[in-house]
Write a structure and sequence with these properties.
By secondary structure, the protein is α/β, with parallel strands linked by helices. The protein has a single domain, classed as Rossmann fold (3-Layer(aba) Sandwich), CATH 3.40.50.300. Helices cover about 40% and strands about 10% of the residues. The protein is built from seven helices and five strands. The protein has a three-stranded parallel sheet with strand order 1-2-3. It has a two-stranded antiparallel ribbon with strand order 4-5. The chain is globular, with a radius of gyration of 20 Å.
Amino acid sequence: KMGTEQRSALRRSRFGLMFQSGQLLDELTCEENVALPLIADGMGLREARAAARPLFPTLGLDGLVDRRPGEVSGGQRQRIALARALVTQPDVLFADEPTGALDSRTGAMLMDTLLAAQQNTGMALVLVTHDRGIAARCRRVLALSDGRFLDPNAATAPAPAAPASTTDRRRG
């Protein structure tokens, strides 16, 4: 059984997390936000920043290295969050609505980057989206409705469950 510190180390080293809201720290520069997982894992600041920097042009973030998250657009913040998730070269990347705040062109670029990273590194990508176009680009799609997985072979969604009765059946 793993202890708390071991689980934390495993999460830091093997999993990348990209949240819809970004979860960036306004006190840090964009580059420091991207480098943060490496610093948390014991890498020195200079080395972590050097590892983070190449992700900026890859994601169309040139010129934002020294800016703070509050000084950039929502779409740029989302791409900075992606850079932070990728900087550790994770085995699994969990992405919650990675294109949600992006225009279609930038969203397509971000998906190109995600799928290229997946193909080039063998990283598993677990992506949550409401965008059917984004889902169509994924190798496997699992759909949820009302908290239940839909049968991928069904032609239509299952009928909703019958509503719970509001009649009080107690006697007394």
